[in-house]
Write a structure and sequence with these properties.
The chain is 42% helix and 12% strand. By secondary structure, it is of the alpha/beta class. The mean pLDDT is 94.
Length: 771
């Protein structure tokens, strides 16, 4: 059977790409050095896949920032505001990075393009911008250059492109009066030009990623798909097109998707195993199927017996000659190489034996293709037996089950997920207790993580810094942060989170049932990588996790200091989660653990507690029919985490980069006293959902984009706040950035927050005059 891979991690085994990009942005290396590092990483990835035995190796899956942004540049979908900044002789990568990060120099001040989540993952993509008179033209040869580069190395390269229909659906109309899908007639000629160049260079296979095929599509959208792929097939009958779907099953779309004129249809059989039976029944004889049986999004070792049963079903129905074996989706969402994990203190050998990273998943794909073949050798038998033993070890391990945790989860009832009084009553008590001004100012939680702060944590882990000296050093950082926040006039302070490596990993390190890696990085956006914890067993909180740091900060000021926690659904979504029980059960275990922390913070005198849940929208199923069940248990988990506190204790939550219209009722059902959200890149557009719904609680729409290095001025933030005040009752409005400030520098943070405070003061003065 043919084996293929859909995509590979591009950041490098030890985040080499992140480091190179950030060095370029800071002026420490030149463009040639950056491109050379990109070339080295690409070629290493291709060789690794070739040596593993993968037949069809993806190219053009490499990116310096984001694959959707790459496609926008290739197609010439460049927002008009950048057109006067970068001349033809300027380097394309500078334009590319400006589109992603904004541009603030040489007299220009240009906002970045919007960013949002890639379906139900924690990966962020740059949203294409479409205009009524949009024109497309081939503007980058990246796809061809990388194909030729791989070809020169003897790689059997399969160029990967985001499919034309999904590309349009991923974007947004930036003005009224048209539907972005109407642009397919202008867009398709550019795609045909791309295919012509690839075919002329010798490409035989093309992978089109069309993940929207697993979502709810109407008749008009289906018609666009049919017409698009008919045109491609008629123009390029010799090209072998792999149509890649993932993250869900085709469901009702299967009846027409199987008739699209493509060589191969890829199915995600990890997320939607049940779709195989239906597709096998209706697939025409001309269609080959790619079986995505190796999980591209989690780190657990493949169960060979289970995967082989699926493969055997397909072989008996359509024959081995019509099948390919593959991961379920791009391995972009997996860490690089499990072999790099050698620290048994953080990752016990027993748990490691249950796992596979991207490199190991390639081997699993090849193993399954061999095991499904007709020739069975003693070596293959041993391979399958070793896999069975790993599966059995995981099932029987005493590490996994904690009867006390299971008992507490079984006792959960409605009383666990309710505040004592309604919001209107709580609001009165909180106003009386906190005595905050109109437009209270705060931040989302984290402050810049300088090299010195990161070094402190590293020295503590290595044992070169004592716990006593570490605590003293972190307390000094907190002292400085509190004094600085007071000096610039913030109303609700934070301790800065200097002790935290990551908003999920920090908590996982203090909870039972978690394991960790040293190099298990995955890309979140651009140069930003995260190292998700591994939930392998029942979750429990043994002792307080944040109380000492928060209470220390509160003692340094008379202003309220927020307790900062990560919510149960975000911990769930941003971890690699055990696959031997329902996610709902794991979420409830985490919620009970966070609830203990909330109650301890309140008992220690903390009056405001923020439970961040930026990942609730991310976990929303791709099919609307599945939303209700997910939202019920996800919102319940948040409410459990916030339960048991007095009415005067103010509960905050934070969400970022989410389309809120889909789930505004559920957000309201969370019943947080204050929600802070990302709105600056969309210019308060996301507030519409809250306004239309008449959202009853308090809200802090972010007034500046922390994912860009540009510093907005006071007038810009004042404009956004004026817009917000026209939509939301002034009594309910907070002033804050879009997200935490961990990734920013202190200079830009200071400038931006001073401007933010000034903007809030202007609004207070305005409304006092009007009153």
């Amino acid at each position: 059977m043919i084996t293929q891979n859909l995509g590979y991690p591009r950041i490098g085994a030890k985040r080499e790409l992140k480091k190179a990009c950030e060095q370029y942005w800071s002026g420490k290396i030149d463009i040639d050095s950056l491109e050379q590092e990109g070339k080295r990483l690409r070629e290493a990835n291709w060789k690794l896949q070739q040596e593993a035995g993968i037949d069809l190796i993806p190219v053009n899956d490499f990116s310096f920032y984001d694959q959707v942004l790459d496609m926008s540049l290739i197609l010439g979908a460049i927002p008009k505001r950048f057109s006067n900044v970068f001349l033809e002789e300027d380097h394309t990568l500078d334009l590319y990075f400006a589109m992603a990060r904004g541009y603030q120099k040489n007299g220009f001040d240009i906002t970045a393009m919007e960013m949002t989540k890639w379906f139900d993952t924690n990966y962020h993509y740059i949203v294409p911008e479409f205009y009524k008179e949009q024109q497309f033209k081939l503007s980058s040869s990246k796809f061809l250059d990388e194909f030729k580069e791989a070809k020169s190395m003897g790689i059997k390269a399969k160029p990967v492109l985001i499919g034309p229909v999904s590309y349009l659906l991923l974007g947004k109309e930036k003005e009224e009066g048209f539907n972005r899908l109407d642009h397919i007639e202008k867009l398709l000629p550019v795609y045909l030009e791309i295919l012509q160049q690839l075919q002329d260079e010798g490409a035989e296979w093309i992978q089109f990623d069309e993940p929207f095929l697993v979502t709810d599509l109407n008749k008009e959208e289906a018609a666009v798909y049919k017409k698009t792929y008919e045109i491609i097939a008629n123009r390029f009958p010799e090209l072998k097109v792999v149509l890649a779907t993932y993250f869900e099953g085709l469901k009702d779309n299967a009846s027409w998707v199987v008739d699209l004129p493509v060589e191969v249809l890829h199915l995600d059989l990890v997320r939607a195993e049940d779709q195989l039976e239906n597709v096998l029944k209706i697939a025409p004889d001309s269609l080959k199927l790619s079986l995505g049986v190796v999980d591209g999004r989690n780190i657990w070792k493949n169960d060979y017996d289970k995967s082989l049963a699926l493969i055997d079903t397909a072989v008996k129905t359509i024959g081995a000659e019509r099948m390919l074996i593959a991961p379920s989706c791009s391995l972009l969402h997996s860490p690089f190489d499990l072999d790099n994990e050698t620290d048994e203190k953080t990752l016990p050998a027993e748990v490691k034996n249950w796992m596979a990273f991207a490199k190991q998943k390639l081997n699993e794909v090849v193993d399954l293709a061999s095991l499904a073949g007709e020739k069975r050798t003693s070596e293959l038998e041993a391979l399958q037996e070793a896999n069975r033993l790993a599966m059995q070890s995981k099932k029987e391990s005493k590490r996994i089950h904690n009867p006390k945790v299971e008992e507490r989860v079984n006792k959960i009832d409605n009383s666990y997920s309710r505040r004592k009084s309604t919001f209107s009553k709580r609001q009165q008590l909180q106003e009386k207790s906190l005595k905050l001004p109109l437009f209270p100012t705060t931040t989302i939680g984290s402050f810049p993580q300088t090299r010195e702060v990161r070094l402190l944590r590293s020295q503590l882990k290595k044992g070169t810094l004592s716990q006593e000296d570490y605590q003293k050093a972190i307390e000094e950082e907190i002292d400085k942060a509190i004094a600085w926040q007071e000096s610039i006039g913030l109303d609700v302070l934070v301790h800065g989170e200097f002790e935290r490596n990551d908003m999920v990993e920090y908590f996982g390190e203090q909870l039972d049932g978690f394991a960790f890696t040293k190099f298990g990085w995955v890309q979140s956006y651009g140069s930003r990588g995260v190292k998700p914890p591994i939930i392998y067993g029942d979750v429990d909180r043994v002792e307080p996790m944040t109380v000492s740091w928060t209470t220390y900060a509160q003692k340094q000021t008379g202003l309220p200091v927020k307790g900062m926690l990560t919510g149960p659904i975000t911990i769930l979504q941003w971890s690699f989660v055990r696959n031997d029980q329902p996610r709902e059960t794991t979420a409830n275990q985490i919620a009970l653990a966070i609830c203990k922390e909330v109650q301890d913070l309140e008992a220690a005198g903390i009056k405001i507690i923020q439970i961040d849940e930026p990942a609730i929208r991310e976990g929303l199923p791709l099919r609307k029919a599945d939303w209700k069940n997910y939202l019920e248990w996800a919102i319940k988990a948040f409410r459990i985490s916030a339960s048991g506190v007095e009415d005067a204790t103010q509960i905050h939550t934070h969400m970022c980069y989410s389309e809120f219209n889909d789930m505004i009722e559920s957000i309201a059902a969370m019943d947080a006293d204050v929600i802070t959200i990302e709105t600056s890149r969309s210019h308060m557009e996301l507030l519409d959902a809250f306004v239309n719904f008449k959202y009853p609680n308090e809200i802090g729409p972010g007034v500046y984009d922390i994912h860009s290095p540009r510093v907005p001025n006071v007038e810009e933030m004042e404009t956004l706040l004026n817009k917000a005040s026209e939509l939301i009752p002034v009594r309910n409005l907070w002033v804050n950035p879009d997200c935490g400030l961990k990734t920013r520098g202190w200079k830009e943070t200071d400038e931006a927050l001073r401007a933010m405070v000034d903007a809030a003061k202007r609004l207070r003065a305005k409304f006092q005059v009007e009153a």
